[in-house]
Amino acid sequence: MRGGRRRRGSSGEGTGGREAGDLGPRSPAGDRPPVSLFAGSSHIRHAWDHAKSVRQNLAEMGLALDPNKAVPLRKRKVKAMEVDMEERPKELVRKPYVLNELEAEASLPEKKDNTLSRDLIDYVRYMVENHGEDYKAMARDEKNYYQDTPKQIRNKINVYRRFYPAEWQAFRDSLQKSKMEVG
Questions:
Q1: 102 and 125 share one domain
Q2: Whether 123 and 101 share a structural domain
């Protein structure tokens, strides 16, 4: 054993890598709780019956474990002959409420969590306060750390306008008022 490396299972003779005082039976999964395949869906988790198999649970909910078997594709024959479809017996859906709840949840509109960084908002406000609509002057400004081109700065300002239209309008109104007071 050079370099201080130990071989696997060398922590004790016949202990299987366990500590010396540990004589109890070794479970394959340890003391961890079983991992659920559908941990993200509370509807499935609440309707799950741990005494049944995964396939049986999903069949009762009207779901499928293998989508290829749930919706079989018709095999085409040469010369456009009639294709005989074997009718598979429909499995009884005992928990249709799970499927209905999942469909209702999937039909909800997705939340848009798009926000702009505080640095970008401050950058756009500074540029508009000092230069107005002069994008070339903004590009030459010393605060233009990333050396944005006039077109890139214009696009950043337009993004700010789209994300925060009410805040943008209030900002433009405050700039108009300050110009009127000075002028």
A1: no
A2: no
